[in-house]
Amino acid sequence: MNIGQVAKETGLNAKTIRYYEQIHLLQPAKRAANGYRDYSEQDLETLRFLQRARNAGFNIEECRQLLNLHQDKTRQSQHVKALVLEKAEHVATQIKELKIMHRHLLQLASLCQADEEPNCAILEELSEQHDTQEDKRHA
Amino acid sequence: MNIGQVAKETGLNAKTIRYYEQIHLLQPAKRAANGYRDYSEQDLETLRFLQRARNAGFNIEECRQLLNLHQDKTRQSQHVKALVLEKAEHVATQIKELKIMHRHLLQLASLCQADEEPNCAILEELSEQHDTQEDKRHA
DNA sequence: CTTGACCTTACAGTGACTGGAAGGTTTATG
DNA sequence: CATAAACCTTCCAGTCACTGTAAGGTCAAG
Questions:
Q1: Å from A34 (CA) to D22 (C1')?
Q2: Quick one: which of A12, A30, B37, B120 has the most CB atoms within 10 Å?
Q3: Among B79, B80, B85, B138, which would you mutate to test the A interface (most chain A Cβ atoms within 10 Å of its Cβ)?
Q4: Which residues span the domain enclosing B7?
């Protein structure tokens, strides 16, 4: 199967698939007589695995680990779970930080008259040292 | 004031300050006789403004706009507010996506026995096509 | 025979820095 | 006065996960 077809089937960009090969996340694909990459059903499954793992928020290094565990017949499932839970915690932290940022932005916006005058409390807030709610929360 | 001192006072890395100059986010700093960058109190304020804006989640391009508005005496405050609200919405979207990812990860983790056996429902989940809650939500 | 849709490689660019090399300057100490 | 450390300078490369572009080879249809 040519790379374009594989791209369609997996939802990955053809460029992305070549890139995964380049960084050795994937074994080099077999080549047809004309030099085109030729993918097997097995390759397709690996690619789909990667697509889902990336989609679930794992970065390339984590995908590499997951793929190794996936292909390791002597793996222990607790290792897989540990990886997933660690990732979940990381995502939770990111959510918290973004929520703080979101509150901060809404608070900034609420300060502004939003008219045709140049006076803007947002810019003042960014210019000066203030004890905002956020600052207090972080202190 | 030397760049190292400025870095300490603003919380920005000295490298970052040079980088901001390089991409013309900042005017080139005055130079002392020895060639060292020499910062004024005014420069410090601009840097602090940038530090807070970056910290609030604005990217470099947005910081550039904010800085322009900051220095534009004929600005209209509604333009500033529009920028902030747009950013807030973007952040809200990011939070939603991360929450979906978080639920997905916890669901994955809950499937796994977490023992010394190789059987792992997480890897199965990533290997196969499933109608997960998320898939339904997106459909 | 040509057009267009594929495929190939290789290199550059993204964003926002960070690290490192190679060298000049300043300050503190023996 | 020598030297070491802690600064400063520029320039180039690397990060992450791709994406874009150029320059070219291949294939199927009309």
A1: 21
A2: B120
A3: B80
A4: 1-75
